[in-house]
Design goal:
Distance between the termini: 39 Å
Low-confidence stretches: none
Radius of gyration: 21 Å
CATH topology: FAD/NAD(P)-binding domain
Largest sheet: 9 strands, mixed
Number of strands: 21
Helix content: 25-40%
Mean pLDDT: 95
Shape: globular
Number of domains: 1
Length: 413
């Protein structure tokens, strides 16, 4: 008889996990309250970030805290009213910023990100989604030598992990991106990265492939999870109770209370991110450009130019603060000439952020036949396919192709 697996969460991590488990012979059901890809997977910057090995907290972040609290236009802000709730998370983030710990975290991040692009390629081919992929890398641009030099620590971490980084100046930047403002004098280019021109379409096509191969996607509102005595979980929904003999939790920023049902107390908070879409400017970009000062990305999508990024720390239930999205118009005008005055749309989503930037990819220690795969922060799209491979390894009882020690939830115990 075919063994069944139930996955809660139809974002990029859940769908990639479903496809990989299906490939290994499992009968897989994915459950979500929304259509596949409607959550954070919908609105990200579309980057397959091979250089995704730099944690949010690095040495010196403590000096940035006043700006997070006082400057509403900084790259990372904290909503005052949520500070008491966020304080334990922030203290853990500061602890993770110690230099030795940053090196360890960087190694754990690089193990995933350097394998990420290759893990996607067979799925893109099978799903007929090759047309969404662009292999152009990421260009980090800076207005001053001081800002360029400030980025050296991040680039040092990448180079130490074997990720190629090229230094560019002046005309070489314009050769790559003629539309960029001439205010940008220096750049770091990461050629190994790639991007997709429609992240939502990517999830939708992968989900369609999963269904075409016999998978089942069920729309349901889960109101509670309960461990089953013999392993797995019972999902309490607004319609019925569903028994899962094998259960994988992939609910992103909403995973904290569900993981607690299985004994994992994870310090997970929402890194609220925003984007705007604008019609393609008269002269657009050739690839992803990241502003090295404000750490937002401009990505040419199939339906316009997406400006995405920034981080806002607040409750997952707090209403959107669209002043953050509106800030992108000002930032976009500083990035390139002919940037439109009015966005065609704006969006807010919840990135699942751990204080050390590492995800949780692990079995539930005290509950057999239950596994976790969440907490990827800003790298959910990047690491979706490789996380799916690791989930399949765990569920199948194979030795995972990447050492999962850095991603255990118990690291915070």
């Amino acid at each position: 008889m075919t063994t069944s697996v139930t996955i809660l969460g139809a974002g990029i991590v859940g769908i990639c996990s479903a496809l990989t488990l299906q490939r290994d012979g499992f009968a897989v059901t994915v459950i979500d309250r929304d259509d596949p890809g409607r959550g954070c997977s919908y609105g990200n910057a579309g980057i397959l970030h091979t250089g995704g090995c730099v944690p949010l907290a690095t040495p010196g972040i403590l000096t940035s805290v006043p700006g997070m609290l006082l400057d509403p236009d900084s790259a990372l802000i904290i909503r005052w009213r949520h500070l008491p709730t966020l304080l334990p998370w922030l203290l853990r983030m500061l602890s993770a910023s110690r230099r030795q710990r940053v090196e360890e975290i960087s190694q754990g991040m690089a193990a995933l990100s350097t394998a990420a692009k290759a893990a996607y390629l067979p799925w893109l081919k099978d799903a007929g989604a090759d047309d969404l992929l662009r292999t152009r890398g990421e260009l980090y641009v800076y207005r001053s030598r001081a800002a360029f030099n400030a980025g050296h620590d991040d680039m040092r971490l990448r180079r130490a992990r074997g990720i190629p980084v090229e230094d560019l100046q002046g005309g070489a930047i314009r050769d790559m991106e003629p539309a960029l403002s001439h205010d940008f004098k220096f750049a770091h280019y990461q050629p190994a990265s790639a991007f997709v021109v429609n992240p939502f379409s990517l999830v939708q096509r992968l989900a369609a492939l999963f269904v075409a191969r016999g998978g089942h996607i069920q729309r349901a509102q889960v109101t509670d999870l309960r461990p089953r005595p013999g392993g797995g979980a019972t999902l309490i929904t607004t319609d019925a109770n569903l028994d899962a003999e094998r259960f994988v939790l992939c609910t992103g920023a909403h995973s904290k209370p569900w993981a607690a049902r299985f004994g994992a107390q994870v310090p997970l908070e929402s890194w609220r991110g925003y984007h705007i879409m604008v019609p393609h400017p008269r002269i657009s970009l050739n690839g992803v450009v990241v502003d090295g000062d404000m750490h937002f990305a401009a990505t040419p999508m199939d339906d316009g130019l997406r400006i995405a990024g920034l981080i806002e720390l607040a409750s997952v239930d707090a209403p959107p603060n669209y002043a953050r999205a509106d800030l992108f118009v000002k930032l976009g005008k500083g990035l390139m000439a002919d940037f439109p005055d009015t966005p065609s749309s704006r969006w807010m989503g919840h990135r699942p952020g751990m204080p050390d930037t590492l995800p949780v990819i692990a079995p539930a220690r005290a509950h057999p036949q239950v596994w976790f795969a969440f907490g990827h922060g800003m790298l959910g799209l990047t690491n979706g396919a490789i996380t799916g491979e690791l989930v399949a390894d765990m569920v199948s009882g194979r030795t995972p192709r990447i050492d999962l020690t850095p991603y255990r939830p118990e690291r915070f115990s």
